[in-house]
């Protein structure tokens, strides 16, 4: 753990230095190819940084925050787009550093009102933290459940872990920066369609980043050649392909094995199904819609079912849960030894004084 903390400090220095350089040139260098060339070394650095970590608790979050989102934000910044170019972000170095290194985005205009009271929000995140703990405990006793149940636990773990991790990061950033942030999740378990799930409820920051980096350019390049509707479908599929490849990269950061392409297939399946859903909606013209009491279980069940089929088997083969609990034990031992090292000198001094 001491080596990981040392690597983390190096990462903070490298990421902060890179973003400080970008902040300095934000207005002095015109957006375009030349700025892209200046940013390119930092792009590859951000992709490389997660490979320096050895524990799953750092490999996953750093790979996601820096290796994926951070590197894509840099690409968008080179062309004057994305969250780093927002006036609310680029006006302050501290905000620029926070947005560049964390999965957060500052809106140009803060939301006027929030209908949910703070007590409800607090209870909601507290409940999700409780579910996260229960899910981790259930995975620890997975041998007592049916094999398929452990895959469901992984589905729940991914959601509750991301909610807690990103929610904590956003809360800290909000407290330090004193600004409102765009939401990251919007209760995805209430999705009534794949379009609703991927476009409006799940992983919203990643959806916004992929829209700017993949969907919009692909649609713009092809719309005059193949028409509006085919270009939209092609852009949707391209977005899911890139998302699949980036998830393969996250898996590689964690397990350090050649990809099996199951995760990419998961996103290809969802891309095809989402295009089919969009085509059906266009064909019926809104004349037919399943009741939400039916569509929501179907949508969530499809996402979890395909996840158990294609997304999580690599987790089980790589024994990621075993590594996770081993690291929990190592963290506990490290904290215990640190406390002992801090207390022992005071105990020695008190004995000497007697």
TrEMBL record:
It is found in: Membrane. Pfam families: MBOAT_2. The chain crosses the membrane at residues 32-50, 62-80, 119-139, 151-173, 231-254, 266-284, 290-312, 333-351. InterPro entries: Wax_synthase, Wax_synthase_dom, Wax_synthase_Magnoliopsida. The keyword Acyltransferase applies. Residues 183-268 form the Wax synthase domain. It is a multi-pass membrane protein. Coiled coil: none annotated. Keywords: Acyltransferase, Lipid metabolism, Membrane, Transferase, Transmembrane, Transmembrane helix. The keyword Acyltransferase applies. Belongs to the wax synthase family. This is Wax synthase domain-containing protein. It comes from Citrullus colocynthis (colocynth).
């Amino acid at each position: 753990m001491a080596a990981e903390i040392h690597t983390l400090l190096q990462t903070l220095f490298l990421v902060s230095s890179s973003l400080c350089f970008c902040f300095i040139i934000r207005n002095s260098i015109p957006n375009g190819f030349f700025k892209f060339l200046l940013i390119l070394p930092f792009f590859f650095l951000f992709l490389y940084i997660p490979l320096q970590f050895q524990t799953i608790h750092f490999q996953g979050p750093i790979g996601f925050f820096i290796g994926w989102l951070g590197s894509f934000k840099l690409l968008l910044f080179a062309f004057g787009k994305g969250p780093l170019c927002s006036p609310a972000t680029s006006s302050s170095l501290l905000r620029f550093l926070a947005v560049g290194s964390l999965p957060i985005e500052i809106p140009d205009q803060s939301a006027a009102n929030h209908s949910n009271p703070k007590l409800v929000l607090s209870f909601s995140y507290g409940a999700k933290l409780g579910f996260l703990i229960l899910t981790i405990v259930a995975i620890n006793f997975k041998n007592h459940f049916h094999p398929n149940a452990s895959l469901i636990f992984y589905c729940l773990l991914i959601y509750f872990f991301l909610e807690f991790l990103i929610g904590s990061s956003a809360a800290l950033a909000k407290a330090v920066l004193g600004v409102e942030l765009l939401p990251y999740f919007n209760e995805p378990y209430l999705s009534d369609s794949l379009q609703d799930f991927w476009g409006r409820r799940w992983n919203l920051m990643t959806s916004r980043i992929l829209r700017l980096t993949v969907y919009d350019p692909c649609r713009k390049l092809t719309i005059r050649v193949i028409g509006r509707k085919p270009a939209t479908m092609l852009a949707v599929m391209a977005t899911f392909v890139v998302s699949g490849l980036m998830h393969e990269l996250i898996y590689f950061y964690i397990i350090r094995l050649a990809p099996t392409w199951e995760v990419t297939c998961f996103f290809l399946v969802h891309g095809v199904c989402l295009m089919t859903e969009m085509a059906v909606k266009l064909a019926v013209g809104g004349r037919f819609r399943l009741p939400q009491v039916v569509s929501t279980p179907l949508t969530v069940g499809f996402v979890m079912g395909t996840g158990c089929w294609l997304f999580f088997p690599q987790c089980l083969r790589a024994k990621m849960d075993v590594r996770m609990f081993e690291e929990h034990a190592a963290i506990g031992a490290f904290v215990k030894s640190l406390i002992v090292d801090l207390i022992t000198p005071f105990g020695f001094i008190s004995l000497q004084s007697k």
